[in-house]
Amino acid sequence: MATTGLVPYLEQVSRRARTRTSTGWISTLGVAASLFAAPGCREDPCGSHVGDICLLAGTGELGFNGDDKPATQSDLYLPSTVRRGPDGRIWVMDFNNQRLRRIEDDGRLVTVVGNGWHAYADPELPLLDTPLENPIDFRFNAEGQVVFTSYHDPRVFEVGADGTLETLAGAADGVTGMTGNEGDGGPALDALFIQLDGIVLDDEGSIYVSDSLANRVRRIRDGNIETIAGTGVPEFGGDGGPAVEAALWWPTALEFDAEGRLLIADTFNHRVRRIDAEGRIETIVGNGEPGFAGDDGPALEARLDQPYGLAVDPDGSLYIADRGNLRIRKVDPEGQISTLAGNGEEGRCPGGPALECELGFPGRIAMDGDELLIAGQSMASVWRLRLR
């Protein structure tokens, strides 16, 4: 199975990180969104103009440089996900720094989970003492607790109120699966995964995770687990039929639309697919040909290149981190696609008109009121984009 783009890059740097040492805890940088002023933006408050993109965090240098620095002076290492939490703060998954970080109200960088070591998590240790294995995506449950996945630790964890991690799915000893559907139909704590990636929770508290190497999407409900999409074979197929009989190829980001239908970034099929309430799957964006084409036309006829992040706007629009194209794309409620950010060139955008910015490989994206949060993974930056 050939892979292109950021995936081999992630594997290269994450392996390299296994030999890195930690000089201390990384603090997560916090600042209320209204206080950020990024270089390159106009003199009025950053993001006050629709279509502006502004720097939230990161220096562009891959690494970490200590605690208690302003967000834009703090190094990140392949930040994979950014979301605003129910506490009103911005949270960042710092993939290769092995930390979950948070932007505090007073502008300090604080670490919430992780000691910086690249190893399997230890649920018996305090949150700041446990290592992590490339944590990649996270969500908040109804109680406001973080639930997250890691690329190289085949377990789903919740950040417990008692100050430790709680395992929600995956074998306690961290055994990796061979087919990625071991344990289906039984307790989630007996299930095996290969390479966990995206995560999303529904209104009832069920947890959905993508296993990119297993080419499957699974659901954890009432403590049990089942596959809901993917046969395990890395190819394309099955549109119009049951999702469990459809083929996915490297599923990553997951999201729900306003009608409660599950959206899947089918990354190496260069499509966004949707599962309806009856379990049927269909393509809603992308014609399956990798590349960049189709702006201002029907989303089904457009070309994507490794979609990797999804966000749904309350107005019905869908935003896509089109990773290989170094762009953020938008599909409006009428099904027309356009580019929202990025000019297709790789670089680190300091801020300004989003369509003129050079972006690196974008990671996950998330709605934040009238803005879109963007994890600029390869550029070690986090941005926010003013939508309206």
Order of helices and strands: HEEEEEEEEEEEEEEEEEEEEEEEEEEE
The count of DSSP E runs of length 2 or more, i.e. the number of strands, is 27
Q: Which structural class do the helices and strands define?
A: mainly beta
- Give the integer mean of the pLDDT values: 90
Number of helical stretches of at least 4 residues:
1
In which range does the helix fraction lie? under 10%
Distance between the termini: 41 Å
Q: What is the radius of gyration computed over CA atoms, rounded to a whole number of angstroms?
A: 19 Å
Globally, the shape reads: globular
Low-confidence region ranges: 15-43
Across the major sheet, the strand order is 1-6-5-4-3
Strand content bin: 35-45%
Largest sheet: 5 strands, antiparallel
Which structural traits does this protein have?
27 strands; single chain; five-stranded antiparallel beta sheet; 388 residues; mainly beta; 3% helix; 1 helix
Topology of helices and strands:
Blueprint (H helix, E strand, L loop, with lengths): L5 H12 L11 E3 L20 E6 L21 E6 L5 E5 L4 E5 L2 E8 L21 E6 L5 E5 L5 E4 L5 E5 L26 E6 L5 E5 L4 E6 L2 E6 L21 E6 L5 E5 L4 E5 L5 E5 L11 E2 L8 E6 L5 E5 L4 E5 L4 E6 L9 E3 L8 E7 L2 E6 L4 E6 L2
Antiparallel strand pairs: 1-6, 2-24, 2-27, 3-4, 4-5, 5-6, 7-8, 8-9, 9-10, 11-12, 12-13, 13-14, 15-16, 16-17, 17-18, 19-23, 20-21, 21-22, 22-23, 25-26, 26-27
